[in-house]
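This section describes the prediction task in plain terms. A model, or a person checking by hand, is given the sequence of a single protein chain and must write out its three-dimensional structure as a string of tokens. No templates, partner chains or ligands are provided. The sample shown here is typical of the held-out split.
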Amino acid sequence: MPSYKAPLRDIQFVTNDLLNFSEHYKNLTTDVELDQQMQSAILEEAAKFSENVISPLNAVGDQHGCKWSADGVTTPPGFKAAYQQYCEGGWPSLAMPEQYGGQGLPESLNVMVSELVCSGSVAWSGYPGLREGAIKTLVSYGNENLKNTFLPNLVSGKWTGTMCLTESHCGTDLGQLKTKATPITDNEYSLSGTKIFISCGEHDMAENIVHIVLARLPDAPKGTAGISLFVVPKFLVNEDGSLGARNPVNCGSIEHKMGVHGFVTCVMNFDGAKGYLIGQPNKGLEAMFTFMNSARLTTALQGLVHSEVAYQGALPYAKERLAMRSLSGVKNPDGPADPIIVHPDVRRMLLTIKSFAEGFRAFAYYVAQQLDLSDHGQSEQQRSQAKNLLALLTPICKGFMTELGCEAAHHGVQVFGGHGYIKEWGMEQNQRDSRISTLYEGTTGIQALDLIGRKVLGSKGALLTNFSDIILAFCKSQESNPQMAEFIEPLKQSTIDWLNLANKIGKSATTDADELGAASVDFLMFSGYTILAYFWARMASVSLHKLESTTDDRDFYNSKINTARFYFQRILPRTATLKLTIQSGAQNLMAMDSEHF
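The expected answer:
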């Protein structure tokens, strides 16, 4: 089983050299000052916690899983103790509001820490992770009483949170949900119904669990227009803040899953459980999007994590494993065979994983900067620009990064050959654990429809043009640099194709709405490959500049340039196929009668 080592050097490159976080922090309106030295110190401590406390629990969680009984759910050995240590270290409150006991640091720093924690164990990281969406939802839509009742303990990590949406008859189609909320008083409601696939719905990690629940009021209109949002605690909270009686919300069973066995997923029964309205009646779905968008970005990080874990497992194995001789001549004359890293196909897999992991980190941290700016930008224009970028990039980040995270995990197994298929190397667990990321918070198809339908066409192309202008401005700034030509020309062409494809899909959809759905996933993937090309071009530009100005870390910067070259020559050309499949239209999908499949 590989032991995780935090990639602090690469994080330093992205935060300091590529995205200039020191300057970014200075441009925020937060009261808490943060500089490069403080950021590095925090990340070094997070790295130690992840490597020494969480990472050893990864295999434990997979092997033991969670156990359910009538008394509740028991998490794997060591999970609860690690969570207590996590809370004692102040990690849950890092980027939370100071008025509720948080430290008020930028959300982007929390994203970096989340990468490290999640890389240690995806399963363990889910328990504190969902709490963040519950906090954001209550901060945005809860009244003062709800905020004061629930936020201090959620912020500290003493309590955890869940998101209760899905029911057995409706997944993404939430307009069909049946859970009822009956008024008791002006402020209290009785909730009855059953939710499934509820992450962290019941466990022994924290003393209370705060459920954020979608339900219908008695007079609610049908469909999504009749959904309200409620907070339903596992234990009721007394006026003095102490825990009261157990609320009648219970775990009916837990799911037996393909992966992430240490992360409990529950069937939750609400049997007249007391809850409190969040926001306005029948406006719950709008409020829940605050939670869902937070969860989508957290899930996107898993694509980065599974790529990084695959790379850290596969690279040392490829350097040590001896098999066959190099096609171009013996490379290890003192051994019976050459290390498999000399073989072109093994290098293809390793470079694919590396280009994903390092590209995703740049993409994710850029999105994290927009999270900071959307709340704490110095001007309304800056805040609005960040919100527009988040609207476009969130579904791409979630859908694209998780899909390629699964691919990276697959390559990690493949590098090991037969050894990758057995447990002790950890690669098969990484592949199993990666699969759920494409399903959480809406499948890739749902993300794709959101992207092309609501974000691109819904804004009449404005959101897409907004970001493509950033890419094209970068291309223009590099026109006089001959060393960048190999990156800039294909990036510029891919960006133009991206705009043209969006326009074509929009025109086709005016006569046949199925054209939208037929093109959606391919368009999302085209978007992702183009955006990753933008970040790889920027990383190549920074690395070329560093090589001209310093004699330090030359191998590191040359590696960046070589990986960028690999991405542009071996990965970005995938967009050519996607362009053709998008242009082929909906007819090849819709012509056959469903009875003839």
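For orientation: The mean pLDDT is 96.
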